[in-house]
Amino acid sequence: MENGMVQVLVTDRNPNVRDLLRRQLHSLGFTTLPARNGQEVCFHLTSADTVDVVVLDPEIDLGACLSSPKSLARLSTRIPFVLHVFPTWEFDENLTAYASAIVEKGGDTDRLLSVVKTLSKTPGLPPEP
């Protein structure tokens, strides 16, 4: 958490979903880093940018960045990540074993926003019921 601002890495193949989540998270006081592909995810996770929570579209090809359970375990101990999935997504044990939460995609993003707030432990944001 840099300067009290929580940064959320928002990954999704769909630019409309990325923009919607960016706007909604911004309205709650978060800053966001968008990532449209695995290269951008890896860049943000390995650069000087501070990432506090990751919202991960599991359909994004993460390549060598997070391809092994060992690298996922390392990530999950440093940064909580939420798998943002379609109801028809076939669960991948390598991802689900290390995810902090799994939230289904749908027309309503309240559940996802609630999970991000909880995982970020953001001071000043209302606690979840």
Provide structural commentary.
With 129 residues, the chain is of the alpha/beta class. It is 36% helix and 18% strand. The protein contains 5 helices and 5 strands; from the N terminus they run βαβαβαβαβα. It has helices at 15-27, 38-46, 69-78, 93-96, 110-120, and strands at 7-11, 31-35, 53-56, 81-85, 101-104. It has a 5-stranded parallel sheet, sandwiched between helices. It is globular.
Essential attributes:
alpha/beta, 5 helices, disordered C terminus, 36% helix, 129 residues
Structural class: alpha/beta
Separation of the first and last Cα atoms: 23 Å
Q: Into which percent range does the helicity of residues fall?
A: 25-40%
> Largest sheet, order of strands side by side?
2-1-3-4-5
Strand content: 15-25%
Give start-end ranges of low-pLDDT stretches. Answer: 123-129
Mean pLDDT: 80
* Main sheet specs: 5 strands, parallel
Secondary structure tally: strands: 5
User: If you compute it from the alpha carbons, what radius of gyration comes out, rounded to the nearest whole angstrom?
Assistant: 14 Å
Please provide the ordered H/E string of secondary-structure elements: EHEHEHEHEH
The backbone outline, from C-alpha atoms, is globular
Number of helices: 5
